Amino acid sequence: MTLIFGIPLSVLSGQLLLGLINGAFYALLSLGLAIIFGLLRIINFAHGAQYMLGAFTAVLALNYLGVNYWVALVLAPLVVGVVGVLIERLLLRRIAGEDHLYGLLLTFGLALILEGSFVKLFGVSGSSYPMPEQLKGGYNLGFMFLPTYRAWVIVAALAVCLVTWFMIERTRLGSYLRAGTENPKLMQAFGINVPLLITLTYGYGAALAAFAGVLAAPIYSVTPTMGANLLIVVFAVVVIGGMGSIMGAIVTGLAMGLIEGLTKVFYPEASNTVVFLVMVLVLLVRPAGLFGKEA
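and the corresponding structure tokens:
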């Protein structure tokens, strides 16, 4: 049996895999938060509820409409994205010129309303979602067993993260978005519909959360509070990476997942707090975050 620092290689590899899976979810959810804050300056506390909505959309679509997993991966982000568009148009736009605290309180209230409504409708016990047949099983790598679905989650999350980064940082649409948040009047003078861009950006951030929810549904129990349990960690990841930093959200999300996995091997008691410890240390050294820009 191969040992590394006295730990069996299979145990270490298994925890690193779990950490990478958690990191993929952290990266995907942090990316949505970073986009919404970086481009709209909204601290979106409803992000966890939108993650939950994505998972429940997949479950309900399967139970009542017979919609399979692959269709749900597209349908759920579209549905939750439309909900996000309505939230921005009907609620957030009314406080666009106010202090950031108003947006935080509004989205926090929305999250409580959504979670409370789903608890009333579906209870707190949770629902299960079947894993697609094509992704069952796994691969024996010799030192560990790699479940196919876990590998798919990592690949799918990274692919979406990188496509989003490229779209925002390397395309004309992304440059319009960034310019529109810096100087909306100038962009409107050039004929760019800035309010529409802002609305679609919030909708896209909500859709990213829903996509993560569908990916999580076959792994974790689908409950009304699943987003609330994850959101506080995701906010810590965003702070570590730098509020509004797209690449910071992706890299830090994956890194924190791996660090959390390693902590479970060497010091399990600290695994639930290591992310917050890293956040404190980073804020002491670099308040803007690892990838953030100093004010």
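(Above: one complete record from the training split.) Residues 69 and 132 are 6 Å apart (CA to CA).
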